[in-house]
Design a protein that fits this description.
two-stranded antiparallel ribbon, 25% helix, 2 strands, single chain, alpha+beta
């Protein structure tokens, strides 16, 4: 029985933009602010715990790495 084709690892899709994990709380806050602008302001989603501060955050943030792409 055949297995479905596995997706290619992300490293195979190199980008000309710097890509790394957030290193500071300030970088995580900046990522949450971007999420707020995109998902709450532009797409109309309901915000998470820090919506009043202009950040989209939820209970999963404490357990996640935040991947940053710089242009």
């Amino acid at each position: 029985h055949e297995h479905p084709e596995r997706p290619e690892p992300m490293t195979r899709h190199l980008t000309p933009f710097p890509l790394r994990l957030a290193r500071t709380e300030g970088e995580v806050a900046a990522a949450q602010a971007l999420r707020h602008r995109v998902f709450v302001e532009e797409l109309g989603a309901r915000g998470g715990a820090l919506t009043a501060e202009g950040r989209e955050a939820d209970r999963f943030d404490a357990h996640c790495e935040h991947l940053l792409l710089f242009d």
